[in-house]
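Thread title: Can someone regenerate the structure for this chain?

I was given the following input by a collaborator and told the matching structure tokens would be attached. They weren't. Posting the sequence so someone can regenerate them.
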Amino acid sequence: MSRRSENLERLDGGTFDVLIVGGGINGAVSAAALTARGVRVAVIDRGDFAGFTSQESSNLVWGGFKYLENYEIPLVWKLCKSRNHLMRQYPTQIAEIGFLATLDRSSPFPSWLAAMGSFSYWAIGRFFTKPPKYYRPRKIEAIEPVIDTTTASGAIEYADGYLKDNDARFVWGFIRSALDGGAVALNYASLGGSNRTSEGWELTVVDELTDRKVNLRARAIVNAAGPFVDGLNEKWDLRTEHRIVYSKGIHLIVPKLTDSDRVLAFFDDTRRLFYVIPMAHRSVIGTTDTRTENASEGVTGEDRVFLLDQINDRLDLEAPLTPADVIGERSGVRPLVVAMSGGDQEGVDWTKLSRKHEVESEKQSRVVTIFGGKLTDCLNVGDEVAEALGDLGIEMGGPSQGWFGEPPASEREAFYVAARRVGLDRAPAIERASTMAEVIWRRHGHAAHDILRLIEADPSTAEPVLGQTDVLWAEVQLMADREMIADIDDFLRRRTKLSLIFRRDELLAHPDMPRVKEVLGLT
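Best answer:
Regenerated them for you:
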């Protein structure tokens, strides 16, 4: 029986303290935090875990430099503290990276003011990262020849964090932590019915893959549905103090534009920041900031042309980028929080809304709702949800050790030593690491030891899948056993980032693909 089938059986007829609806970053971190406190948790998502907004980010862990423009200093202080904490706890997954922001005619303020802001940001961030620097145009040309400095007035370089793998893989780490702690988690499972009782909730969950319906009970619900929290609350006749508005952001993945490992930052023609971010052997251009009413709106032709025009105007490329150069795309909505003052959200200046979150409780119904949020602040979300449920009468202990973060450095170094015996001290083909052992460790943590056992039993599983990738056959086997993959895009997009850095149609047509599907149980 597959792990997913086991979780479906455990869900059927189960009694839980909490059902979490939504398996993005908010739901995943809540599941891990609550399980670590001894709470009986079930988490469901109508798609795959991290299958919506949480797979569409810029892969950055940052303190919100741009929020200084609106003088949101307390928020920046809090986010920088969260960033620092995550970077300490995930030393191989989250790396410090430089941001080189070039100021030109489209910038909303002069370069000297941006330089002052970068030093303030460094101080607010408790001097955790490398200190900022200021460059004149000639220096910009020397360190980043790809930048067109014709209209540049200067540049600043400051540091933040970014995920070496992808956002969805990071989210899966919290789901994995919850599962290892005894939680029940099910992807492709929607909420089919809900009835409040004096003791909590009677709920029906529909398995979207088989149409099977299962019933369960829960004392409380956590609404972690991201952009869809308002719809769930309306279904339950709950009145809240906050609501969500949408801002769409897109990214385009193109061939590598610079040999450096920096993030290049620019202001577009509307005076909003966008970036060129490294991802393996590719560059990611984005993000945009467009008001939308449709949470599922994808990348439009207008979006694509706008971003390509912006980057072509600011880089000195041998040939301008065209839509044919786009290898992959990301499009997601930011669920931005607005207060329901008198129930009216019209007239809100959504372009100035930050990615802060709000956690609300409805005591009579025992529903906790998470509005907004971002990856950087995820650990605080978990703690705040636990506190809110405690106030609703859900008994729990203090958090156990190890519900977040990587295993200790001593275990990592021992793994590296063992990995040499099976040849994983070789350099990866495309990933940003010195050895394949580093790549395997950051993706799998404790389970990396299982990868070694698979390779020792069959050395051929140390070979890459789907051509010159840095995903091994042993990893595919481990993912098949542990990671509840139900669709090929779960593997290509969320458990790995393969379809972001290679063309999806080429991956699907690769001669290895039938065997990949067979190993994953998708045939």
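Residues 73-89 form the longest helix (17 residues).
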